[in-house]
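This entry is passed on directly below:
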Amino acid sequence: MSNKYAEAGVDTAAGDLAVELMKSAVSATHGPSVVGGFGGFAGLFDVSFLKDYDRPLLATSTDGVGTKVAIAQALDKHDTIGQDLVGMVVDDIVVVGARPLFMTDYIACGRVVPARIADIVKGIALACSETGTALVGGETAEHPGLLGPDDYDVAGAAVGVVESSKALGPERVVDGDVVVAIASSGLHSNGFSLVRHILGSAGVGYTDTSADLGGWGEALLVPTRLYTTPLLGVIDELPDAIHSLSHVTGGGIAANLARVLPIGSWVELERATWSPDPVFRVLADLGSMTLEETEGTWNLGIGMFAVVAAESAAAVIASIESAGIPAWEAGRVSVGERSLAGFEQGAKGVNGGAVRLSGTYAA
C-alpha cells in the first residue's frame, strides 16, 4: 500500500527516528517532579511542593531564536541553537526572581532530518539541565511546501515559580541603587536581521573569515550565555540584594533597562565602564555605523542588568564573577526632577523609568 502522507512530503518514520535520537538527552533533564516520563501527549509535572509557598506566583515566557537560525542552516551546524532558545526563554523567567520548572519546545521544518532535529533538541536539553529546567515535551512539525527542505524555525515556552513576597520588579527599586552590568557572550539571539543585512551588503559569506574574528559563521553562532543559575545563586545567598533584573534582548540596551525601573527614576549608563566585544566593532565598521547607532539593536556586551542595593553591589558582582561571568557597575538610579531629553523611557508597552547612555566606550 502506498504511503500517501509520505508522497505529500511528510516522513513519519524520520520523525520517529528523530525522537529516538533525542530521547536520552531529554530524559536527562527529568527529576522526580516529572511524571510519566518521555513521549506523552502532554508533559506532567508534580507541583505539590507549591503547598509550602504562602502565595506562589507562576511565571511564564515564550520566545524563539529569530533569524540566527539562517546562519545555523547555512553552516549545517545545529548544536548551539538549542542553547540560544533556552537563553531567550528561561532567562526571561529569572528576571522576576522565579525559579524555572519546566519547558516545552516546538520545531517547524520543511523536512525532518533526524540527526539535525536531534542536534537541536540535544542543545535545548543540555541548556535545560544547566538551568535546572525539565524539558517535559515538544513537537516537531514537518511543513513541506511551506518551508524549504532545509529550513526550520524553533520556539519554546517555560514556566517557573516565585514566592509573591520575593518577586523582583520596579517597585523594589529605590534612589541610589546600583546598576550592575553582566557580560554577554556576544550577539546572543537579537539583531540578526541587521547582521545578515550588513554581511549581504558587503558580500561577506558565513564561511568567509575575518582577520579579527576568524570564521564569520562560527563567530556569529556563539551561543547565548545562560544567566539563570548564577542569578538564582545570588538571590539565594543575598535575598534582599537584587531589586530588579533586565534581560537585554530585542530593543537594545537602554530600553530594556528602562522597563525595570520605576516611573520617575532615571539612569545614565557610562559607556566608559566597558569595551564592546570585537564582533560588535567589526560588524559596525563593516556596516559604516558607529557603535552608538547600534545600541537599540545589539546588546554590545551586556546580556543582563541587575539593579541592586548599593551596599550589596560589591557582593553581587563578586558572586556573579565567581561563576566566570564578568560584571561591573555601569550606573546608579536617581529619582527626582531633571530634563530627560535624549533618554529612553520605557518600552514594549511598559511606562517605566528613563535611561541614557553617555560618554565614550572603553577601547
